[in-house]
Amino acid sequence: MVLKIEPSLLKRHVFLFLGAIVAPCLVLVALSVRMIGQERQLQAKRASEERQRRVAQVGEELLSRLERIKLDLAIAPAKRVPETVVFVGSVRDGHLLLPWDANPNAQQFLQWIGDSRFANKMRQAEHEEIIAGKLDDAVRFYREALGSTSQPAAQAYARLSLARTLRKMGKSEDGYLEYKQVLDSSPDLADEHGIPLALYAAPPLLDAGRQQKEVLARITAHLNKSERLPPAALYLLRDLAARLAAGYAVGKLTNQIQDREQAEALQRDFSRLPLLTQGQEPVWMAYGEPLWLVSLAPQAGSTNAMAIVVRAREMLTGRDSSLDQVELASGKTGEPLGEHFPGLRATIPAGVEGDDTFRRTFLLIAISLLVTLTLFAGYLLLRDVRRELRLAEMRSQFVSGVSHELKTPLTAIRVFAESMRLDDDMERQTQREYLDSILQESERLGRLVDNVLDFAKIEHGRKNYQLRPISLAEAADAAARIMRYPLEQSGFHLEVVLDRDLHQVSADRDAIEQAILNLLSNAIKYSGESREIALRLFREGSDAVIQVVDHGVGIPREEQARIFERFYRVPSEENQRISGAGLGLTLVEHIVKAHGGSVGVESNPGEGSTFTIRLPLEDKS
Questions:
Q1: Rounded to whole angstroms, what are the CA distances from 368 to 276, 373, 380?
Q2: Domain locations in the chain?
Q3: 284, 340 contact by CB (below 8 A)
Q4: What fold does the segment set 463-616 form as a domain?
Q5: 104-227 has which fold?
Q6: pTM above 0.90?
Q7: Whole-number Å distance between alpha carbons of 211 and 244
Q8: C-alpha to C-alpha distances, 494 to 411, 490, 535, nearest whole angstrom
Q9: Residue range 61-81, pLDDT digits in tens
Q10: Distance separating alpha carbons of residues 440 and 458, to the nearest angstrom
């Protein structure tokens, strides 16, 4: 019986659905959107006023803290600089001098090593070492240079050259002793570039696996007082820390190097900043990324100005919960902080919402729930439609495949019959071969028709099996005999290995034969270039096992779970050239499960497939 829906009834149901469900939902959504829009406008107005109030509060608090730092540094610049301050520089003639640009020890280094007696000895030593190649004389002159000066920096400089020459002579231990003395020297001893001389002794010692703890201690000491170290010294320290796998030191030095690089960029751009043209009002300019705040202050005991550079982010953290969430930026987002902070803006987080929060939340949840249910219903409908379309496509492929399967044996039967009719003088042997072919094609046609009829019965739940004790070996033999001719015609060799001592099982012999025939037919179709097929019957535990093995194209692992579905065929270009209806394995699975057994497959692409049927053995008692 086919249920048909009248078009008018269908239209009425559609209109009722639209009127009872869709229209009220649309009205509810429209009203909710309007209410939310009005509340949003009111909330935006209140939020704008609140932001302006809080921006003014942030500006006042930030200016107060910054000016307090400026005042402390102006009164007592020799005290320890706060952690929020990146550096304090000096401004001369409109140019910014960085702290490490004025290291007095570094400036005196050239004067110390330029002393005439010391310099002459060093030149003689370098000539003997590098040009003449007389290392003994070079060592003697280096030692004389060492004894000719009382300046620690010049002595450390001479010891570095002496240690290098001793290592060249093969006196590594003496050289390492000289390097160790330099490593233990004062961290304030620096060359003309501001690099501590002790750092030059660290690489050769680390290369020899020596003084690792001492080098790490020296790195730590410089980390604690690195505000006057130039970028070159920090690079060298970071390389040494990396060699010692001191992750904390590497990270801290990397941050300091980034600060140095940004400080040098500020030095280049300083003359273009409007700080020097501001009036008497305190001004803090925003610079760089991460954001710095820069201002000028009078320098105690000098006519020069003092440039103070502060980290903007750290000025608002760990002090006040209301300021901790404020974001400062020099872009176009946020609210301007006022005349004391030109170009600086603050992003204020949204305040606590008013009493309408619950209603807005409820409306949003209701709308979300409604939209979710509608989308879910649409998904279910789409899934059903896609499933029906897929089933219709598979049925169409099935009809096409069955038509092709029917056409092939019918064409062969007609060709052989017409050949026998037209050739009255045909030899008897040829006639017998033609008749065998007609018989085999008829049997093939019968098997196909049986498959289709059995599938139709299975679909309608009317397929019954006559279970009685049978010999599986005899059923397998019968299937092998039926397939003998098509196997021989295609050049296949069928290896039959049967355990004939298996006792009987309760089964429908015709159904078991049909299952084996379907597996053998599939093996012929999908063997590719291989011509070896095996049919095996043996016992495994309490089961009788039937296996059909081929060495053909194989089945991808991800497709093996679906090959027993009705109408399903593995979607590959090679399979498209092989005729089939997609019912054989479906019938095999139904037959085996109806007998209380199971069917499975083991396969790899290009290596063939092994289909295994397991049937429970009948108890002898």
A1: 57, 9, 18
A2: 104-227, 463-616
A3: yes
A4: Heat Shock Protein 90 (3.30.565)
A5: 1.25.40
A6: no
A7: 11
A8: 27, 11, 7
A9: 888 888 888 888 877 665 667
A10: 26
